[in-house]
Write a structure and sequence with these properties.
This protein has 311 residues and is mainly β. It has one helix at residues 38-43; strands at 24-30, 49-51, 64-68, 77-84, 90-94, 103-107, 113-116, 119-123, 134-138, 147-156, 165-171, 181-183, 190-194, 206-214, 220-224, 233-237, 243-246, 249-253, 264-269, 274-276, 282-284, 287-291, 294-295.
Length: 311
């Protein structure tokens, strides 16, 4: 753990007046419980996997965990198996699934028992296990790529030769798109759904824009990722069911007709949760909350995520 007694200074060496230049980021990373984490890579000890020998519900005692620090650079799989049961159960173990057995008849204790090369196994009880019950662990020599949990970003705002800046906070939404922002005057019945699955580890902001491009029967839509500087697809028939745009992101219209030409819905994956601009304007996930001290737009949600107001 790093301890800073006074200040943390982050300096960007770039000299530029371009919008979003002089960017500095502070990123927080984490691992899933199923990932090969830094702790596992440093110790070499992977997850403990249990196999109940007779697969009888209610009789299994899964109380063993591998530990220690592996001392070599190979990646064997350790298998520990109960080879006798009694007042004190015993086990045998192998590193090649019992093509060869390294030791057998080892009495259980509730203290860490060293197998070899720094690897230990610890049982919660010395008796009550099933004959043939197994615990396996594959040694880990590298780590899974950590995912971004949250990110602070500070950068220059605008294109002027000045010191204006903006700061944003992004939080990992696990790839779920934000609520639709509607721009138009017609039927507002589109919802974004699905889950962005191209890369849900990095907080890379991606916008999706859907526009009604014909009002026949059914109506059709076009969609873009850059507000129609370029268009990904046009003339897509509205079906009334979930329709995939890309990478797991979907749109669903409640009706297939009745929309107004050129009405647009927008959603973002990994949008800035909070963004503060140099003129004190504050945005929360696309909603303007404050501009020069005046309340512009504010949404109130209940504990289940339902909007309680429409202001």
């Amino acid at each position: 753990m790093a301890i800073f007694k006074e200040n943390i200074d982050v300096v960007n060496p770039e000299g530029s007046d371009a919008n979003d230049s002089r960017k500095s980021e502070i990123t927080f990373y984490g691992f899933l419980s199923t990932d090969e984490s830094l702790n596992e890579a440093f110790s070499g000890i992977g997850d403990t996997i249990y196999t109940d020998a007779d697969n009888t519900p209610g009789t299994a005692l899964n109380d063993a965990t591998f530990g220690g620090t592996y001392e070599l650079h190979t990646t064997p799989t350790y298998t520990v198996e109960i080879d006798s049961v009694g007042a004190t159960d015993t086990f045998k173990y192998s590193k090649d699934n019992f093509v060869t057995t390294i030791a057998s008849g080892v009495s259980l204790t509730t203290s860490p028992i060293t197998l070899d090369t720094g690897v230990t196994i610890t049982f919660g009880a010395i008796t009550g296990h099933g004959l043939g019950d197994q615990w396996q662990m594959t040694v880990i020599s590298s780590t899974s790529e950590a995912h971004e949990l949250a990110k602070f970003v500070a950068s220059h705002e605008g294109t002027g030769t000045d010191h204006k800046s903006s700061m944003s906070l992004s939080i990992n939404t696990d790839g779920y798109p934000s609520d639709a922002i509607f721009s138009g005057s017609g039927l507002n019945d589109l919802t974004f759904g699905g889950r962005y699955n191209n890369n849900n580890k990095e907080l890379i902001r991606q916008g999706y824009y859907v526009k009604i491009d014909s009002t026949g029967n059914p109506n059709t839509f076009a969609w873009s990722k850059d507000n129609f500087v370029t268009t990904e697809s046009t003339g897509v028939n509205i079906t009334g069911s979930a329709q995939t745009l890309e990478h797991g992101v979907t749109v669903t219209f409640a009706a297939t007709t009745g929309h107004t030409l050129n009405d647009v819905w927008t959603s973002f994956v990994y949008d800035d949760n909070i963004k503060i601009f140099s003129n004190n304007l504050v945005k929360f996930s696309g909603d303007v909350v404050q501009a020069n001290g005046n309340l512009v737009s504010f949404r109130v949600y209940d504990a289940d995520g339902n909007i309680l107001n429409t202001a």
